[in-house]
Predict the 3D structure of the following.
Amino acid sequence: MTRALVVVDVQNDFCEGGSLAVAGGADVAAAISAHVRAHAADYAHVVATRDHHVDPGGHFAEQPDYVETWPAHCVVGTDGVELHPRLEREPIEAVFDKGEHAAAYSGFEGRSDGVPLAEWLRAHGVDAVDVVGIATDHCVRATALDAVGEGFATRVLLPLTAGVSEATTDAALEQLRTAGVELEGSVHRP
């Protein structure tokens, strides 16, 4: 198997101090960097995804419900859109931006230089992915589900993820198990 690591949305706005912070996000960024250093031989490729909003319409709301609508986050041209400084950039070969003009949860909605994530992975001979990042119960879940749907053998490395809430994270983990995603370890709970 040719395996890639897909680092999902480890961005300033999703870490402590950001506009839509997930507790433990900065620690997850550092843990992913340590994992990549320790397991570099396990991965043929390392890629990342980013929320990359220009005008995502109803995705943003002044009074968000935190289900369908959210506070403004990861807006192009702001520091919040950038990958977190504790996530080492050097191993990352490509960054797949998603959600410019609509809500986008799955990294498979993203593109790098116009190439969709699934197409990029296939062109590089990848048939298995490990998914890590933020948030376990939203974009990590959606990315892992789409990875399985695209035919990739899919694992989520739970210690390298951070969830928004225990209830939604537990529901996401059950959905991932049911879909055939391999779950490894326990989710980061600060």
The first helix runs from residue 25 to 38. The two ends are 33 Å apart (CA to CA). The longest strand covers residues 153-162.
